[in-house]
Write a structure and sequence with these properties.
With 122 residues, this protein is α+β, with helices and mostly antiparallel strands. It contains five helices and five strands, in the order ααβββααββα. The chain has helices at residues 2-7, 11-26, 62-82, 87-91, 117-120, and strands at 29-32, 35-43, 48-55, 95-102, 109-115. It has a five-stranded mixed β-sheet with strand order 1-2-3-4-5. It is globular. The N and C termini lie far apart (38 Å).
Length: 122
Amino acid sequence: MCILTACQESLEDQCERECREYTEKKCPTSLDQSLRIDSMTFDRSSHTITYHYTLLGDLDNQEVIDAGRDSFTAKLRNDLKNTTNMRAYKAEGYNFSYVYYSDKEKKRCRLSVLFTEKDYKK
């Protein structure tokens, strides 16, 4: 029994591995005409899983982002509450961050949203 326990990876190690593998195997991937996922990362010190996206086409516009910010944030929160594939991380109170960069203006962050345990366990 001790041997099996020693071989198990911690939740942090698992999260780091899953983020790395997702990025290596599936990124970048266009989700539709307006959005591409570029990577998924994990920060151990803050227990934050971050999804890095690039906005494309008409969605890559700060006015459009600002006008829809509240409804978009509410949809992200609802999706996070209802997702089952992050159950173990949510149970441990991990944070989830969504960062959207401009394709037209490289490295410019158009939107960044952070959800903590209080946001998705309501």
